[in-house]
Amino acid sequence: MPDVEIDRPDLEKVREALVERFGAAILETSYAHKELSFRVRKEDLLAILGLLKTDQGFNALNDMIGLDHPAPLGEGRKRFSVLYQLYRFPGFQRVRVVVDLDEGEAVDSIVPLYRAAEWAEREIFDMFGIPFAGHQDLRRIYMPDEFVGHPLRKDFPLEGNEACLLKI
Amino acid sequence: MGPQHPSTHGVLRLKVSVDNELVLKIEPVVGYLHRGMEKLWESLTYAQVVPMTDRLDYIAAVSNNLAFVLAVEKLMGLEIPKRAQYIRVILAEIQRLASHLAWLGFMANDIGAISVLLFGFEDREDFLDILEIYAGGRLTVHGLRIGGVPYDLDEALIALIRKSLDDLPKKIKDIETLLTKNRIWRHRTEGIGLISAAEAIEYGLTGPALRASGVAWDIRKDIPYSSYQDFDFEVPVLRGGDVYDRYLVRLEEIRQSTRIIRQALDKLPAGEIMAKVPRVLKIPAGEVFHSIEAPKGELGFYVRSNGTDKPERVKMKSPSFINLQSLPLMCRGNLFSDIVGILGSLDIVLGEIDK
Amino acid sequence: MTNTGFVFDVLIPVGKIVAVILYPMLMTIVMIWLERRVVALMQKRLGPNRVGFQGILQPFADAFKLFLKEDIMQDQADPLLFKVAPVLVMFSSLLAFCFVPLGEPIRIGTYQLTLWIAQSPVGLLLVLGLSSISVFGVIFGGWASNSKYPLMGALRSVVQILSYEIPIGLTVLSVVFFARSIDLVEIVNHQSQAKIWFGFMLPVSFVVFWISAIAETNRAPFDLPEAESELVAGYHTEYSGMKFAFFYIAEYAHMVLVSSLVVIMFFGGWLAPFPNVPAFAFLKVIPGFVWYLVKIMFFLYLYVWIRATLPRYRFDELIRLAWKWLIPLALLNFLVVALIRYIL
Amino acid sequence: MNKVSRFLKTFFLVDILRGLAVTMRFYFGRKITIQYPEEVQPSPERFKGILRLYKDENGKPLCIACKACRRACGTNCFDIEGVRDPGTRTMRPVKYDWKLDRCTFCGLCVEACPTTPKSIRFSEEFRMATADKSRLHFHLEDMYLKGKDLQKFFQGGSKT
User: Fold this and answer.
1) Residue B3: pLDDT band by 50, 70, 90 thresholds?
2) Which CATH class is domain D51-154?
3) Tell me: the pLDDT tens digits for C255-291?
4) Which of B142, B150, B178 faces D22 most closely, judged by CB atoms?
5) Mean pLDDT of the region C309-323
C-alpha cells in the first residue's frame, strides 16, 4: 500500500486509526484535493463504517455515489464502485470510502448504520443494478418498476432503450 | 396525495395511510420528473453542463451553478479572481433570498394564507429582476461560468441591489405581522413535524431544517468557499425542530443574507472577473466532491474526470432528496392537514430530487 | 277591482318567488366579483378587470364557462346521490331566503307590500334549520363521489357544522331573550323600539355568532372541508360544469343568508343607524332596504377580508376552538344575558 | 402581568386585527400588476429572448458559418452549412437551422460567436407561442425576422 502524504493532522489520525485496526482490509488510500479516500474490501465495509461512525465520530452520511468504470482500472479492480461520502460534525471533516463490485455482486446495506442511506441505496440499485444485501425495501426509486435496464451504466444508450418508450 | 395535487410542490406522490385524520404511514414516491440528468451530463462538455444545472433546483439556479462550478474548479486547481468570488457570493445570496421568499409564499399558501403567497412572490420578483438584468434569465439564470462570472456588476445594478435590500425589511415585517404572531399560524406550525438533532443527523438532514433542530452547521461558515470567510454573518440556530422554527430560521437567514450582500457590495474588490480558462476545457483525471450551502441545504457535486473534455461521472447530492427522506419520520402522529405544512417546511424542489 | 285583486293575489306572490330566486343569484354574482377584486386588491394585484367595466361581467363569463363545460360523473360514483347533492345544497339555501325579510314593508296606497314571502312566527328557527340541511348535500356529494378527498371533506364538514351549530344556537337565544320573539321581522321591530342595535348591546353574542357563522359557511379560516392545499377542493372535487356551479352558488347564497341573519339580529336589519333617536332621523331619508344592503355588503366584505388575511385552521384546532372557547363563552354570555334580562 | 396581557391580547384577537390592518393597508396601497398587452415591462439589456442572426449595416450577414455556436450548444439546436463567397474570402451561411423547441436559452452560442459584433445574439422577443410545431424550427431566413414579421411567422402566415 503506497503511503499517502496528508497535510491535515485530523485526517491523518483517521487514516492511522483505520490502518491500525483493519490493515489489510484497506486496499488503497488516496488523498487528493484535500479529500481523504479509502478503498476497502467489500467484506469489511460495515465494520469499517461502524468504526468510523462510533470511534471516529463520522456521524452523518453525506452521499452515496455509484460508478461504472468504462475501462478496467487496473489490477484487482472491478467494474462498479460504490462511494460513501461521510461527514463528521462537529469538526466538519469528510472522508470517502470506496468498495469495488462486480456485475451482480451484492454489497452489505448500511441502512442499520446510516438511515440516510435508504433512498441512496435504492437510487444506486435503480441506476446501476447493484444489489444491497439486507436492504428492507430495495425497489426502483426513479424509474418505473417494470423498467428494464439500469440507466447510468455506461452500456446503456443515451437515447434510451425500448423500455423507455411509454406503454400506453 | 399527488402526483397532481395543489400543494405538492411539483410532481411528488405521497402514499398516505390515515386513520380518519391521523397519519399512520406515509411513503413518498418520487421519480415523476426524472430526466436522466446525470446520464446526460456524461455526454456534455463541462461548460455545457453548467446551464443544465439550472434545471435541477429551478428555484435557486445560481446555487446549482456555483456548486458545480466550484467542484470543477477544485478539480482543475483553478484560482478564481477575488472580484469574481465576491460577485458569486452576491449572486448566490440574492438567489437564496429569492428562494426563501418563494418558499415563504408556498409555505403560507399550504397553510392557507393565500395572500402571503402573493406577497412572497412579489418580494422575490425584485431579486429575480436583478438576476434578469445581470444574466438575462430569471429562473434558469446560467449566471456563472467555469473560471469566474460572465458579466461584471455595474453601478446601476449595484444601486438597484441596494435599493431592493433596503425595501426588504419592511416587506418582511408585514409578512411577519400576518404570520409570525398570528395564532392560527402558530397553532399550525408549533410542535408540528418534530425532529430531534440526533435524528436529523441520522437522516442526513441539512440546511435550515437541520439548523432548526439545533445543529449549527452551515458550510458557508464551517468550510468556507468562494470567500465566505471574509464576511461577518450569523448562522441562525433554533432548538425546536418543528415547522415554526424552520420558518423562523429561514426568515433570519433572509436577514443574514442581506447583511452578506451589503458587505460584499461594500468590499467589492477591483480586478478580473474571469480566470484564464482554455477554450476547450480538458480537465486532469481525478475525482472531487464539493458541496456548498444552497438555500435548501447542502448541495454537493461529485465530479470524476478521465482527462477528456467531458466528465466521466457527475453525481449530485441534492438536499431535497435527502431531506424528503425524513418526511415519514416528521409526520408520525400528526394530522393529515399537517402533511402539507411539514412538506412545505422542508422546502423541497422536485427538479432536484428527481434530477 | 278584480284586476287589482289579480295583481295582489297572483302577480305579486309570483314576483316575490322569482325575486327570492333571483336575489341570491344576483348577490352571488356581485359577490364573486367582489371577492375576486377585493382579494386581488389586498394582494397588491388588480384582479379581473377585462370583462366589462372593471371586470363586473367576470362572474357571467365564469358562469358561461361552467355552462359550457362537460358534466363529468365518475364511473364509480353513486348516480342518484351524486345528482341530488348539488340540488339539495342549492335548494336549502334558496328556500331559507323565503323567510328572510329584504326590507321594511312598502306602502302602495292601501296595499302593504311586504318584502318577504312568509313571515313566520318561528322564522329564525326555520332559517337556521333550512340552512343546516345543506350539510346533507355536502355529505351526499362527498360520499357519492366515491373518492378520498371529497369523503374527507364531507366528514370534516359534518363535524364542523355539528360543532358550530351549538354556539350559533346559544347566541341566537340571547338575542331572542331581548326580542322576545323568534320572528325575524319582530326582532328588527324590537330593535327599532329598543333604540339600540343588539350588536352593541350583546357584543359577545355577535362575535361568537359571527365566528361560528364563518365556520358554518365553510369560509376561510374555517374552510377545512374544501381546503385546497390539503383536500384539493373538498367535497366538490369531483364535480364539474353546472353541478359545480350549484355548489358554488349555494356557498355564496349561504354567505348572503348568514350576513342577512347577522344584520337582522345584531344590526337592526333595514333600520337606519340610531333608530328612534330624533337627532338622527334624517338618516331615514335613505330607504330601508338600501341600509340593509349596505350592511349586508359590509359583512360580505368582512368575509373576503378575513379570507385574504388569515391562514387556515387545522381540523383538531377547529373543534377545540368550538368546544373549548366558543361554546363556554356562548354559555357564559347566555347566563349573563339571562340574568340581566331577569333583573330588568 | 405578562400573562394577563397575553390573555387579553389573545381574547381581543389583537394578532388577527393587526393582520387585518396589514391587508387593509395593501388594499389601498400601490398595485404592482402590469396590464400586459397594453403595458409591457421593458426587457433588460441582457434579456434572453429568441436568438436572432444579425446583418451588418450594409445588409451583409455577419455570420461566417464557423459553427462555433453549434459546437458550444449543449442541446444540438443548430444545423449549419456555409459556403465560401467567391468574391471575398469570407464564408457565409447557406443553411442555418435552429430548433427553438430544443433551445434552453443558456447563451453559450452567443458567447462562442467569434465575429464582432456578434452575429448571433438574443433579441428582446419573448412571444414565441405558436399552434404549429413546425414553426419552432427556424431556417436561415427566419433567423433574421423580428417584431411583427416574427409573429406572423409563428402564426403560420407567409413563410418569408
Assistant:
1) low
2) alpha beta
3) 888 888 888 877 777 776 766 666 666 666 677 777 7
4) B178
5) 79
**How much is the CA Rg of chain D, to the nearest whole Å?**
26
pLDDT class for D144, splitting at 50, 70, 90? Answer: confident
Instruction: Say whether residue B352 is in contact with chain A using an 8 A CB cutoff.
Output: no
Chain B residues near residue D32 by CB distance under 8 angstroms: 122, 125
Q: Widest CA span of chain B, in angstroms?
A: 64
Residue whose grid cell is 346533507: C136
Chain C residue whose CA is closest to D19? C309
Q: Which of B6, B118, B185 is nearest residue C228 as measured by Cβ atoms? A: B6
Report the distance separating Cα D109 and Cα B341, nearest Å. Answer: 43
Residues A59-84 have pLDDT tens digits of: 888 888 888 877 766 666 777 888 88
- In DSSP terms, which residues pair with B13 in a beta bridge? B29
Name which of B39, B74, B313 is nearest A33 (Cβ-Cβ): B74
From B265-279, C30-44, C267-281, the region with the lowest mean pLDDT: C267-281
Selection from B219, B207, B229, B203 nearest residue B86 by Cα: B229
DSSP C191-219: HHHHTS-HHHH-HHHHHHHHHHHHHHTT-
- Determine, yes or no, domain membership for B329: yes
3-state secondary structure of D93: strand
Range of the domain at B237: 6-354
Helix H segments across chain C? 2-6, 12-42, 58-68, 79-97, 123-144, 148-179, 184-194, 198-201, 203-216, 228-231, 241-266, 288-309, 315-320, 327-343
Query: Which residue range forms the structural domain that includes residue A63?
Result: 9-164
Give chain A's end-to-end CA distance (angstroms, integer).
55
Segment C219-252, tens digit of pLDDT: 767 776 666 666 666 666 667 667 777 777 888 8
Best of B41, B58, B142 to substitute, by most chain D Cβ atoms within 10 angstroms, is: B142
Question: Under an 8 A CB cutoff, do D31 and C41 touch?
Answer: yes
CB environment C100-122: b (16+ within 10 A), e (fewer): bbbbbbeeeeeeeebbbbeebee
How high is the pLDDT of residue D158? 47
pLDDT of residue C225: 66
Give the domain ranges of chain D.
1-32, 51-154
Torsion of the alpha carbons at B147, B151, B152 and B154, rounded to the nearest 10? -170
Per-window interface: C 114-173 vs B, CB < 8 A: 152, 155
Q: Is residue A133 part of a domain?
A: yes
**Best interface-test mutation with C: which of B8, B175, B185, B337 has the largest number of C CBs within 10 A?**
B337
Reported as a single tens digit per residue, the pLDDT across B229-250 is 888 888 888 887 888 888 888 8
pTM over 0.90: no
Portion of chain D with pLDDT greater than 70, in percent? 92
pLDDT of B53 strictly over 80: yes
* Amino acid making up residue B87: I
User: Which among A103-107, B95-99, C96-100 has the top mean pLDDT?
Assistant: B95-99
Kindly report the number of other CB atoms within 10 A of residue C276's CB atom: 14
Q: How many domains does one find in chain B?
A: 1
B260 within domain boundaries: yes
Contact A63 B223 (CB under 8 A): no
Q: What is the CATH number of the domain that holds A53?
A: 3.30.460.80
Q: Where are the domains of chain C?
A: 75-103+118-343
Kindly determine whether residue B54 and residue D106, on different chains, have CB atoms separated by under 8 Å. yes
Number of domains in chain A: 1
Comparing C-alpha atoms, which of B148, B146, B140, B100 is closest to residue B120? B100
Residue of A80, A125, A142, A155 best to disrupt the B interface, most CBs of B under 10 A: A142
Q: Which residues of B touch A60 (CB under 8 A)?
A: 201-202, 204
What whole-number percentage of chain C has pLDDT above 90? 0
From C309's Cα to the closest Cα of chain D, the distance in A is 6
Q: Tell me, yes or no, if B110 comes closer than 8 A to chain C by beta carbon.
A: yes
